[in-house]
């Protein structure tokens, strides 16, 4: 038995009821609250796609295995039409968030008010939203309305957005087919390992001979160059396996460099994704 077909109105109703839903390849994916809080990319990366088609973004930042697991959270299917899914406005974009209330249950809170452009021009479309933080702490209210989930007019037509998405998919396929996502361990990271080893060795020899300034200089070079590999590992860009990349990163960053890679990932990756897409 296949998953049921959902209308846009039903998706909106479930979002208003507090569910975190997004569209992935014509399917409605429901994100449990527990995973929203544990998502490596941060909760905002998901909340800003509630009610929207996140297929391109999911493909860009998730492995094939992770995307296959997401299918287990599909609760419905949708018809996207010729130019794709007609997006809803995520509640967080109009200042609405879900938080635990005094009764221990999730409730809607309004953290900010929206200010829209008074004119509808190419540089300042009426769909543009500015959030103004509430003067006091978040106020518990009934929640967003169906009207607040409707997107305003956009300078980019649905046809143009569909063309952009198709162009991205074509480019992604070209990059994949060219093997540019495959790690070159020997020719790529081989010279890096030689360089790191040379800097660390010179630093150790200089220290043993009492040449402290020379030792400090090469030790600094060692730490500086090491961060490039740790950066790649933090983005799962070496083996593409979370456990392996994170363990290697912990050894290099925490034990050799004195920097918590866990802290760096928790701070930088959600911020980077927010900057790229929003």
UniProtKB/TrEMBL annotation:
Membrane-spanning ranges: 204-226, 246-265
GO terms for cellular component: membrane
Identification of the protein by name: Delta 8-(E)-sphingolipid desaturase
Record-annotated Cytochrome b5 heme-binding domain positions: 3-79
Family per similarity comment: Belongs to the fatty acid desaturase type 1 family.
Membrane association type: Multi-pass membrane protein
Record-listed E.C. numbers: 1.14.19.18
Any GO BP annotation: sphingolipid metabolic process
Keywords attached to this entry: Iron, Lipid metabolism, Membrane, Metal-binding, Oxidoreductase, Sphingolipid metabolism, Transmembrane, Transmembrane helix
Principal cellular location given in the protein's record: membrane
Pathway annotation from the record: Lipid metabolism; sphingolipid metabolism; Sphingolipid metabolism
Compartments it resides in: Membrane
An example molecular function term from Gene Ontology annotations: oxidoreductase activity, acting on paired donors, with oxidation of a pair of donors resulting in the reduction of molecular oxygen to two molecules of water
Keyword Membrane in record: yes
One protein family per Pfam: Cyt-b5
Species whose genome carries this gene: Hermanssonia centrifuga
